[in-house]
Amino acid sequence: MTYPITIKITILQPVHKVWDYFYNPKHIVKWNFPTTNWQCTKALSDFREGGRFDYRLDYKDKSFGYSFSGYIDEIKLLQYVKSHLDDGRKIEVLFNKIDENTTEIIEIFEPELHNSIEMQRVGWYAILDRFHKYVEKN
Q1: C-alpha distances in angstroms, 108 versus 1, 40, 58, 62, 103?
Q2: What protein family does this chain belong to (predicted)?
Q3: Of 26, 90, 126, 135, whose Cβ has the fewest other Cβ atoms within 10 Å?
């Protein structure tokens, strides 16, 4: 049995802005990739319980890419979103309002079986850190 991976980061922005930037496709394409060799070429989201999301990540030289897609299972506005990917893995994103201008994000996700746990933790954290920098800068 593989246990979920948990990563978190604190962002110096209000929770409503962090929430919007995390789930709004116009922002997702700006931050949803692990390194500058990657890009998010598509972000579609029917943001509601039962709605589908589909994000496309491609290596800039077009040598590799994949879709990150699934369904939204539960939304509690400005607090959390529970989803599952097309392969059945579950993801939970928590938004903790620390104060009026500080938000902590906690991501809990079931790892896939092809890459090491550490590689997945590093990759997911790199994306979350890119998100953190994007939100604080914009």
Answers
A1: 16, 21, 24, 30, 16
A2: Belongs to the AHA1 family.
A3: 26
